[in-house]
Amino acid sequence: SRLLAGWAPSPPTCSHLRLVPVPVGSLLSSYGWYILLAAVAIYFLIQKISQGLAARPSGQSAAADAAVEPDVVVRRQEALAAARLRMQEELNAQAERYKEKQRQLEEEKRRQKIAMWESMQEGKSYKGNLKLNQQEVESGASTSSAVPKSKPNKKPLRGGG
What we know:
This protein is mainly α. It has helices spanning about 20-70, 70-120, 125-140, 140-145.
């Protein structure tokens, strides 16, 4: 009884050669490197997964230890609260310093505007007066109460002739 037309059974002497068919050899020669790289990747993936599984129970045991000792948890929370309080106080101090600096800058701007307005009312150049006011602020209040010095006699730029 023939199942397929044109198919003939192989002779009994060649039956042991049919165990490894010819296409497997051509498959290995064509895709051997890809198969090798896939096997290496699978090996590393299995190693990574096994390390992750080995690390997981130890993390759960640490959590169980913390649950067993509530005083450790309380101390940890108190330390965290104290650190937060310190950081908040530091931040508040920085904010206060910044506000003070801004207040001083606003006061200085206000003084400059007043000085500029006064010099404009007197009919003077406000830019020159502004420079003088800045020099007075730098030198201090003691020189502002002193009598302004007269200019020393300078030689004329051109000759007398």
